[in-house]
Amino acid sequence: MQPIISVQQLSKTYASGFQALKPIDLQIRKGEIFALLGPNGAGKTTLISIICGIVNPSAGSVLADGHDVVRDYRAARMKIGLVPQELTTDSFETVWNTVSFSRGLFGRSPNPAHIEKVLKDLSLWNKKDSRIITLSGGMKRRVMIAKALSHEPQILFLDEPTAGVDVELRRDMWEMVRGLRASGVTIILTTHYIDEAEQMADRIGVINKGELILVEDKAELMNKLGRKQLTLQLQDALPAIPAALDGYALELSDDGRQLVYSFDAQGEHTGIDVLLRRLAEAGIDFKDLKTSQSSLEDIFVDLVRERA
């Protein structure tokens, strides 16, 4: 299947000489939710801005549903909806007029039924005649999303969409995102809430210092890079890990009462049975044990730290 977004050797260097993006190749599949993760200043917003035609690339190309975002800007931009980080809209206009006007900017004919549906989906219907200036920050964020959806895009970019918004809006937004994905809309999001990416995304991309360092299906990423840990609550505090256990990936807590064993859950042998036997031979008793798997956040932090 042809990707709905195709990025080839895309880079951006500003007049100051700062290289915001190193050459990037990226294919985004139609109908997927793709999460782009990275620390502040990593290049996430620059990459999105180029794809959306807001910033010109220094080199490379981007196709949006087969349209070059530079040479065929209008056709490409028609396919894309963008919810930026900043709240930028006419403060003195009504919600209805703002969203309807945004649809017209993309050359779409009026469709009051679609605007009504969007406003109702975002719990904005009872605010349709309110001026933007009277709305709360969360409601203004909803208006930005409504504007992005007004022209029925096939690609939706959400740049830190839930930063600083209430729990209700986050819940409503992700319900809406699932509905859009079910209808075939492709969604690309950046977020600082890595738990959202872990819950929502089909694939994960990690960008750091302008370089796309990893693109992976979420499940495969968790399996390949996610660590499992066995935590043992010891009966008595240990001053140090016995020499007989040197061959194991063990960490002892500062108070000596907790022993953590890291292992590969996908491996043929975890080594847990042998470890427990060695502990018994060494006279080390434990009163409780539990296993846990590293989260996407743990994986992300490790990846970025490795490239620091």
How does this structure look, described?
This protein has 308 residues and is α/β, with parallel strands linked by helices. It folds into 2 domains: 5-223, Rossmann fold (3-Layer(aba) Sandwich); 227-294, 2-Layer Sandwich (Alpha-Beta Plaits). It contains 10 helices and 14 strands. The protein has a 6-stranded mixed sheet, with helices on both faces. The protein has a 4-stranded antiparallel sheet with strand order 2-1-4-5. β7 (155-159), α6 and β8 (186-190) form a beta-alpha-beta unit. α3 runs parallel beside α5. The longest helix has 16 residues, at 167-182. The two termini are 36 Å apart. The relative contact order is 0.13.
Which keywords apply here?
alpha/beta; Rossmann fold; Alpha-Beta Plaits; six-stranded mixed sheet; 10 helices; 27% strand
What fraction of the residues are assigned to beta strands by DSSP? 25-35%
Model regions low in confidence, pLDDT < 50 over at least 5 residues: none
Biggest sheet: strands, sense, closure? 6 strands, mixed
CATH architecture annotation of the largest domain: 3-Layer(aba) Sandwich
Q: What structural category do the secondary elements indicate?
A: alpha/beta
State the shape.
elongated
Query: What is the CATH superfamily classification of the largest domain?
Result: P-loop containing nucleotide triphosphate hydrolases
CATH class of the largest domain: Alpha Beta
Largest beta sheet: strand ordering: 6-7-8-3-9-10
Q: Write the H/E string, N to C.
A: EEEHEEHEHHHEHEHEEHEEEHEH
**Which fold name fills CATH's third level, the topology of the largest domain?**
Rossmann fold
The termini sit apart by 36 Å
Number of strands: 14
| Count of helical regions | 10
Round the mean pLDDT to the nearest integer and report it: 85
Overall tally of structural domains: 2
Radius of gyration equals 24 Å
